[in-house]
Write the structure tokens for this entry.
Amino acid sequence: MIFVNDSDLDTLKLNDLMMFDASNDRIEPTDLLDMGQSELIGRIAQRWGVSIDEVLQNIKMRAQIKGRIAEAGRSRPELVEADRVGQVNNMFWLLMNELQDGDGRVDLGEVYGRWCRWYEGIIQKM
């Protein structure tokens, strides 16, 4: 999870990082997100001890996960119910913690791959 101190909120300038594109019926990243020019993302990167690019990769991976959940929910609405989404989020964070190396870095590709395999297994069991 992303935590920001109350003092950060007082000085933080918030900008739209994503916008809804009605023509595509989807949320699209703005240039601020694509170029890593968000003050908040910069602060998150600093707090996590990673680059802005790594934070952006994390955000994009999590968006892919949410997309997989939403896609599965189109034909199986029970997969987007709160308790099920909570379980899949918990697995994401479990993998993030489990796959950290000694420096606290995580191979996001490995997290995503393992999460996808786990999620497919969950879908098949239901």
The chain has one domain: 14-125.
